[in-house]
Design a protein that fits this description.
Layout lengths: L12 H14 L8 E2 L2 H8 L3 H13 L3 E4 L3 E4 L4 H26 L3 H13 L2
Antiparallel strand pairs: 1-3, 2-3
Helix pairs in contact: 1-3, 2-3
Organism: Anaerostipes hadrus
Pfam family, one: GntR
Keywords: DNA-binding, Transcription, Transcription regulation
């Protein structure tokens, strides 16, 4: 599992870890039941505080992405299809918001955008 921490981002380190592990789970690069690095192990690899890594893992567990098993470690949780669907819906909404803002700068109407989506959808 490869996690990249950026010091230039205005995002806390624990959130960077959370987002990257979450994305690995959603994209199925990490499979259900697969063990992830220990909190201490990941902290050592990333050269960050154990507390920071623990916070990321706590958030992942709270949101249902991982399960902690006392004495055994942390594992990717079974897929919660509703959770994954909701995550993907949020992403679609974010992309659509960007598209709407950009379309306004081009002078496109709502109907123009709808037509574009219909055309793009026909290709699939």
């Amino acid at each position: 599992m490869k996690i990249i921490i950026s010091n230039v981002k205005n995002q806390p380190i624990y959130e960077q870890i959370y987002e990257q592990i979450k994305n690995l789970i959603i994209t199925e690069e990490l499979k259900a039941g697969e063990m992830i690095p220990s909190i201490r192990g990941l902290a050592k690899d990333l050269r960050i505080s154990v507390i920071t890594t623990k916070r990321a893992y706590d958030e992942l567990e709270k949101d249902g992405f991982i399960n902690s098993v006392a004495g055994k470690g942390c594992f990717v949780a079974e897929k919660n299809l509703e959770l994954i669907k909701e995550e993907n819906l949020k992403k679609v909404e974010q992309y659509l918001e960007k598209a709407v803002k950009l379309s306004r700068t081009c002078g496109l109407t709502k109907d123009d955008l709808i037509d574009m989506i219909k055309i793009i959808g026909k290709d699939e």
